[in-house]
Fold each of these.
Amino acid sequence: MGLNNTYTINDIIKDDNHRFPMTSSNIRVGNKKVNYKVLALMTLFSNKQTLENIYETGSEDLYRYLYKNKLFKYRNLVENLTNMKLETIIKVINNMTKIDTGIRKITTEGGEIVYYMDYKTNDREFVIIHAKILKQLITYSNSNCIKVYIILNYMCRKGKVKITNSWLLKQIGLKPNIGNNNKQIADITKTLCDLGLINKYTEDIDGKSHNWYSINSYEEWKLFNKLDSCS
């Protein structure tokens, strides 16, 4: 098949139950220069670190890797998933290799470019996201929306949690009460609810609204009936 033939996500993900790690490190989630839509795409197309490498190095660092030419092979699929031109995606990736994103660009002896994506180093945390959910996030949301989902995924791993809009904004590197930031976080949580990924409950205490969040499991997400639980 030629480089621009029609591929589907099933050509990339062979296992329907495949799950991917995404870093929830504050230094990356809180960095406005880290594009999580592109990082999610890279993760979806990446390969995992071999067990042999882990055993040989003895390092606790964990990573995935992606050959640049794989993105070009699946250009149409990549651009359809992201609604972005591949050249723009490559530019974003190259920019992220220049800052602390955990992405490293290596050129092999054969001249191929490989991107290495660290998702666990030292005490840095990560969350596990089902491939189909990751695909949905890439297609129907943006970088900040994915960041908020990852934060909520981590924070709500043991159940429902009360979280303020101001706190969420600060976690993704934005200041509360500046411009349309407050509306942006409300729109993001609404989008995540509409996608069936989270639940948001608002209660009034002494005249003030308090937001509680929980994360839907993969099975709950599959069964989600699109009833809007968001205010």
Amino acid sequence: MTGSNFGIPRPISTGVPAEQPVLLTHAASTFLDAHARIVAASKVIKAKIDKRETRMVAVPGLIALATLLYCVFHGYIVSGFILAAIVGFGALCLAGMVSAVIGKPTDPTPAQLIAIGVEEVKRFVPLMNRGRYQWVRRDYDFVGVFPDTGFIYYFGPTTRWQHLLMAGRQTVRQVRVNITTKTSQTSTSTTEHGRRYAVAPTRNVAVLSKGKSTTTHQTSTTTHTSHVLEIQYQAEQGAAPAWLSVNFGEDGRLAEDWRLMIAQTAGLT
């Protein structure tokens, strides 16, 4: 998912202290409180979903076990195992149909986390007073540029939901798009049997013809390409460099656009 915004706040502040080219600012308390509530609610929802899925498997298993014990108690050991398997399978199918009718509970918290993140970025970015700005959202990550004053911006889980503002020419060392491709294959086989004829030499003897069987093999290949924008920055000379990664999914063109904008803002081109 993508979201973007741009603007021209006034007035413009043109620099940061030379000894502090990287600024980390805490998010607003309203965002932090809302984030904590949503995360807590997400854990509750996930626990309920896990509990429901466990019951969907456990209940048919208990029914099959009860059937087996009943049959064994009455001396039907072999038939008891067969009947327990049939009953358990039937109960499992019934549970699956009930689950399909009811539907799997949806977790609204991811959308809520994105919504409060967007509002926090909209609130914070204009307050920086760094001139024209533009930012983009990919899932929970926000990255932006201030082209007039050469600043790079990030907000998201990598910085533990703190606003990161970097003087691009002093801190950004390289920007690249890392492309990864994952390929998965699924194979299916279908066998069709032709008609078989019976030949009866006598009234009590019949011979079946061999017939013809045709097996068809099909293989489907699915390829997923992911474009990850990677920004290497260094707070000061000699310090250990760090990386920011923003996943643009299959949108390689947008990832390249932002690589170019960040590189230009940081003076790398």
